[in-house]
Fold each of these.
Amino acid sequence: MRCRFLANWILAASLIGLAPGMLLAQFEVLPVANESAPRGQFFGVLGQVARPGVYELPGGRQTLNDLIEAAGGLTTAASSNLRIVRSGGQTFFQPRVRVELHSGDLIVCERRRAGMVMAGSGSTAASGRDARDSTGYVTGRPSNGAGTASEPARSSEPETADAVQLGVIGLLDRLVVIAIPSEQATLQNVLATLRQSREGARQISLLRDGSQHRAVPLTEATQTVLTTGTVIVFDAKSAQVDFLPKLPQPVRWTANEVPAAQALITTSDVAKPATVEGMFPRTAPQSNELTVPPDQTATVMDVTEQFQTADEPVAHAAADESSSPAPLVTTREAVTTPTVDDAKAGGTSWVLPTLIVLGSVLAVAGLIGFEFLRRPALKSQSARAAAGAVAAAQPDRKALESRGETIPSVPEPAIPTLLDELITNCLPIVIEPVVLPSGVRIHGRPIERSDEFQLRFDAAHSIPQPHVCQAATVGVLKTAVEPTAAVQNIPRRAAATPPGQRIDTRHPRSMDEPKLLDRVLAELDRSKRASAARSSPAIAGGRTGPSHIGRHLQGGVR
Amino acid sequence: MSEALDCGTCWFRALRPHGRHLVLRRGLAVFATVPDTPAQREVLELAHVPFAIGDDYLALIGDASEKLASVFKATCRDLLPYGDLPADDPVVRQAIAILVESLLPQVESAGEVCCLIRCGGGESNPGRLSRRTEFFSRLVRLRGYRPVELSAGMAVVLAGLSDQGFTGIGMDLGASGCDIAVAHRGVPVASCWVPRGGRWIDEQLARRQQWFQREPNGGLRPDIVRAGPTKLSKQGSVNNPSGANENLFAGLYRGILTPAVEQLGRMLSTCGEATLRACPPLTIACSGGATGVSGFAELLQRLVREMPLAVPIGSVRVAADREHAVLRGGLIHAEIEHVGQRSRPAA
């Protein structure tokens, strides 16, 4: 009781001390003009880089090299493939390719497969350059140099090597990169950590290495094991953002923040990949790495300790305030990056910063004391919250168990997608007939072209009875124009062919429908017989000569 | 559902997935007009031949026009002569629209993607190419699809170079020309167009073999309909010809491939050298009906080795489904776009 009174007193004192600063800050330190100032572009990078996370780079054209440089360069375990996730799709690049990034791009640096040893790895300090190829980049190709094939690659892992790094899209208005302990890296745990209920996040998508992409209904694959580089795409409309945990803030990186030791890395160097020295393995000397402000270094945070159900937001908020001064992210609008420029633009008087500093100091002191007194209770509360989250994430399992049904185990999704089947060319092709409409009106008149290539033309001659297509050579037809010497060499038709008839060469493209021509000719003959019977009963059924059909076919070539 | 549409000089084709197989619709890119007389209309109706009705003529579109043009003494004409869209012929444009409408099924849901294969180079006349692309894009939109464009060479890369990480050279030997694209990790680096294709071979082969057809005015034209299947029925190899006919045949293929390799060399030296030099030797994937002749890959590889190129070339391969590889590559592109669009969070 005495401790609780003391804690409340300290908290009240801290709030009293913080209040003037907060009020003044709302009045003065957040000018409207600065809110409308152009913000940078957000990019995410995870996987085999020194400092994975979300980076805010200045506006303008940013390349893949810029982002990898901001993230501290590739590790020695990085493969030669970089995966870029953009607008829900993904594609692959090599680091040496100069790719212009768009705001919102997420770069996944894959891990090199087993057996692929870095060229020059394991050498001296100067081998930091040896580990790169001639263009100055780390390569993932198998080494053929002396002593490298059997040597293990240098142990160089990103800062969250023992965790599974995941990208999250659709929760906020920017990317989010989180790290989950590998033993807890299931989709179910991640959703519970992000406080996404089944009703809120009805459907998400997973983007993995390779071309495996599938929409994952939550009712099917909550036990899906996630690996580093998996990108979870939430439906922005259905995602629940009211009780999000504290997500990592993006790191603002500008050229001005590069320390003097980094003066070698210039824009011109980035523009010329062959001379870039900013991409080095993780084991390179720290002085060569781009430094990040201390409070922004932890860009990938382990959010599993913030495991809490959505029905206990207040207690969790208190825990967050005690552990970090960063505000609890509760809405999309709250996810903004407080910058030094903001404070400079708004804080024109020295009184205000003083009040803010004093209030902040009192608040921090009060919160530290408050946290010290509440720590035992907080531990048990977190444990209860975690248990509640797990229970909330498995309602179907409990229901199944109560009904005595077997619980289906959801395997790793390895369903070959249509894209995989198309790429591997394992789908047979079925030819479907084309049904053209009949009776459609066409307007205008066709234009005759003298230079147009005509596919086929038969000289004017009478048409005999419906004839059978034969695989014979087209005979030379007698016309008014004498054939040239070249034409005379064309083989004559068979001698058995009666004069006045022709033998059509079966068109190679008409193999699939040989009856069309016969059908039309039969109709022609039928109509001819009917008209002949009407006009002259004497010849009905007798003459089937070609001149009759010729009268039906008026016009010919237009 | 995704769709791929290839409107070429010879064929209009559409490919789409359906269950565990792909469905191909195709129609010859020709049409013919016959006078609109009661007798001819009656004959067509009784024979169940679809036709369109003009002011005073009937239009036969697609396969029926080629089969029946001789019966009705009509002239069968290309819808896209030499791959170009006639700018001043409204009848041809309407015939194209009818054929495309028949090839593309109605969309099942909004936002379905149709990849439009772009064949023909825009280097010489980019305005003409853009007009054709715009025209077909409108037709695709009228069917409810979202059109995306892809060159034939890039479609070959997507269809045939997956084991190379979609890095390499795609070459589509079509009827009106040869489309070449250089890609790195699925991203086009450079492309070019050589206006010589399978029809050029047919023409030259018909001329040299003296296979002609009569024109209405009594003139003679090379019989490409006869020469087309002949070139693929040759038993000998174009790489090692033995007789006179095979020498003639191999010379024709060299007449296409030599300027294509020269163009490829210029393209690699200007565009893709910086990006592709560090890559392993590139693979050339070929497709198209004319690539089915024996010895095509060996001939192309020999020509590539004889030509000093800025980027090393590894092997040459011909797609197993050489006639449909372009469509399959277009379908891959459409599916990628469709999946990306589907998984994209709504704004």
Amino acid sequence: MTVTSPGLPQRLRTMLPQRRVVAAGGASTQPWVTPSVVVALTVSLLAAWFALYATVLSGLQASRDNASLYKQFRANLAQATVPIGQPIAPGTPIALLKLPEVGLSNEVVVEGTSPDELMQGVGHLRTSPLPGQPGMSQIFGRSLTYGAPFGDIDQLKKGARFTVTTGQGTFHYVVARVRHVGDPVPPPLPVGGSGLMLETSIGTLLSSLRPVYVDATLTDKPVPAATAPLATVPKSERALGTDHAHLAQLVFWLQGLFLAAVLTTWGVLRWGRWQAWLVGVPLVLTMLWGATGAATRLLPNLI
Amino acid sequence: MLGGLATRFSRRRSAAALAVIVASIAVAPIPAGPSVAAAAQSSFAKTVTIARTYTISDPSECHTPGHVTANVCEIESRKVTVHVDRTQGLQDQQQIAVTWTGAHPTNNYPGDPNSSTSDLSEYPMVLLQCRGTTATVTPETCWAPLDQERVVTTGENSGAADVGTFPAWRLDRYAEPAERKQFTGIPPNPPDGCPTFGQLAEHVQPFRAADGTRYYGSGQNTLCGNSPPEAGSFSNSGSVSDLPDNATFALTNANGSGAHKFSVRDISTNASIGCSATVACVLVAIPVIGISCDPNFDTDDPGPGTYPDGSDYDAGRPGRAAAACEAEGQLPQGLGSRTDPVDAVSGKLWWSASNWRNRITVPLTFAPVAGACHSVNAKNLPAFFGSEAALQATTQWSAKLCLTQGATSFDHVVAAEPLARTLVSTGAAKAGLTSQPFSGPTANPIVQAPVAATGFAISYIIDDADGNPFQSLRLTPRLLAKLLTESYPDTSAVKQNYPALSHNPLNVTLDPEFQALNPGIPQYTSIYGTSSLFSISTPSDVIYALTSYIGADPEARAWLSGKPDPWGMVVNPNYRGLSLPVNAWPLSDSWTMPDSAFSNSTPTGTGCEGQYGVQPQPPYLQLISSPVESMLKIAQSIEYAQPSDGNACNVNPNLPGTVPGSIFTAYTRAPRQFTGQRFVIGLTSLSDAAHYSLDTAQLETSSTLDPSAKFSDGSNRSFAGPGANGLKAAFTHMHRDTTTGTWQLDYDKLRSDAPTAYPGAMLIYADIPTKGLSGSDAKTYAALLRYMIGPGQVPGTAVGQLPDGYLPLTSGNGLGAQATYTTEAADDIAAQKGLLPGQEPPTAPSSSPAGTPTQPGGGSGTPTSGSGPGGPTATSSGAGSSPAPSSSGPASSPSQVAFSRAANNLRTPGSKSSAYLYLTILLILLLALGPLAAARARWFAGGSRARR
């Protein structure tokens, strides 16, 4: 049983043969630190990192994305170049949602609802008409990760007001009901009527995930639509859709992580401890960030 | 005083009695039963005595000794009776049944009485539709436009046929001299070629159209002038609208009797004859017995330009002409296809005075043409969308309302009922006519008020082995399933190359189940129409009702799930396990005929299959099914005996644009079938079947047989036909479904309790919202509904009355509850308070004025279960919130109490994903793993150190 100096990134213990010179006086300081314990601790750390990323760090990333999208949207709105009809490239900001009751003051709505687009904020389902146009418009948002913009919408009360600003103007909505799976389906819209449906997922720790809907009616007059929405979208853009196309990215990030770890360890062994640390930690953290990001992207889009 | 009282009392009693008598007389004329009685009152029958004679100068010249009076010899004499079943209130293309007895049997009958060669039969019964009255009708206004029916010519002949210039019609003893000229009927300023060059005699019978134009053509022969535009040229399909012609040269059987269903035409399909409600028309029946001759008319003038010195004079000609005129029919009795009948007794000379004077004239009256009434505000007429089965009734109702002063008529836009329900539920249409409840919540409360009690019928035209119409067809749900699921191969090529169907009988006439129930129908192997039910391809509540009936039968369900029938026939695998009922019948078989089945196909071969046929091959069994989009087309196809099969082959050599010498082939629809060998069976509405006088099948209602047992007759099964009794029994057994507000037919209950109830009965509802219509619309629709349930339920053939095929909604017919419901619904529609019959208005204190919009949270007036969007993939017409753009409105709106009756069975869908759950559990486990392992190791290490 060999001992390595404390402070080295834990995962190295699982990867390198232990031939480090024993530090003076350090023999048997921690005899309980066996390889299996090291593995277990590494795994726990990774899990903790994953949980931290999912709940906190991804929110940072999402609010950064939202800020840059807001700038872009504001500029487009001023120049009247915000798209108001299909085809709209997925990822384009198309509306601004202000729902003060759940803390959304300037949430940019992008076009498309795949996990990638919902990483940046809330997304508009492409088979539904744009907000303000006749028909039932649908907006998806995450409720746990990436800032959880729709995390509290199931707490909305009937009568809550909010606005959506698109390239065709500002539309005022009033919440009609919060609908869970199994609730009665409401009557259809009349011809020419317009409504908005916010959708996300809810689920507590020990019960499974299911969608929840918030139905809202438009209190203004609907504006005409120049084009029809898409007829169909891929599976990744439907509710609780997943996108496994980026699995390869996760593999690349993990390979990058592995390389970074190896390089850092090599640096610690050959170059110098604090130099390797200085260079290696940000490198490893970046790879880790990317890997967990790629991993969370594989989750359903409404989580 | 007592005496005075007594007098008063008795006076009152007698007054009461008188009132009762008067009331019953007033009420009695309204017939309570179906309108069959009305049709029977307009029937017509007449008997005439006809004779064929010829003039003689000496009694010894008479070939029939004992039949000489003065100088007239009688060849034969007959007493002919003609009966027509209905003659009043006729509509375009309706069929009237003409039957006769005592006529001369027909020879050389071509099979199709309306074809262009039907006039070449000997002694036919000629049935023609003519314009005029009994007193004024002449051959000039009779419709007989084909081939030699109006122009007969006589050329140079030799031998016994050499009659010079005296064919039989010139020797007609009853004809006027002007009708016996050598060239008669030639138009003034004739074109070149008229009279026909080289002919020795010609008779043209012009036709005078309703607008006064005279047509001198006859079918293909247009040398003397054109034919009327509705006449065909030489094809038997005739007319600009491709309708078969209705000039009939019908077959009289060997015993002198005959029957024919004559298709009348009014101004909408034949403007040249122009029959309408204001122009009188008649049916002329001419029992052809032959020309009565006067040989003395033969003055033997030579032909123009020939032998002025009489050098070609032939002394034998007069004798031969007389013999030809007096000749009797030579061709075999019954079917034949010769083109050389004895002219004197052929149908060609129907116009000749001898035949014409024997006519029986039947006066006909036509109903006003539907749509002839043009409302001033035609574009603002209220519209009903939906049900094709209601069309016959709504045609009458809208026509009557249009003619009524001060009443608003309506438009019936025929549409698929599921589409109509969607339109009405979203408010795109204000009213609909459907037969099923709504499948989801509606934007406004909608009442479904019954307005018509009718149903579907399986109509058919089938000839039995003797060539007479077969009229007692019986069908089981399993047979209907076999005919619908493309399970009969139809041709041996399919049977040999489609393994799944190789053990099935070729068509339904070869199916032992069909033979057991319908003995007497011949077994066909080569005619069209015997392998599939002629059906519709569009979504419809009629298909829903038919498939409900089939799906409720255990025998049919077992067969559809793959179990073979007792003789081994299996369902087409593409339909196996089909879950019924459905709104639209799917065409699921995509098998194509392989080229290897026709290995001897050549570039100039005459087939549509094979390597040189139609390429690429379409799905073959779908060609055989070939459904159409409306039941009206099916009814007319059955009337004219044209099956739906589209796998007949049209071969056209040397079409322009093709390689010279190549044959162009295309699949085409099968032609009309020959009388005597007809087999077409299709799905029609009951009203269309009654309108066109089609035969309808009896459907099985219950069976006590083991489904896997073979049987050879219809015993232990009960069948019910769509007569008044069958419909009444079915409607009496309908039960009201309180969740949907409609009346449903429970087939299992019918099976056990009511074997005489017709299972094809359907109620048609008017779907009208009770909230959201404008005031004037509400009043209009309420008035329309009151008309439909009141005067519109009186049966009869007059305008505005309920046509045949509908059962009046009265309590006598078991439909009293429905009639009451509709009457109350009309009030609710007028009030527009969002209530349905039987609901109370809300009693909450804050009275909401009409403008306050509506209910939160879902329930609307009526129905319920079914498919609806509401989940994540809803499109623009999908799930929504409360309809009207409401300004906030009082939060505590009491209007939500009114709709307790509307149970909404639709639930928000949503799949539950387990990813999160497993992930969370995994994460927690992994999180705990490290500290646990470390703690455990530390504890052990600490323990061992302590022990050291």
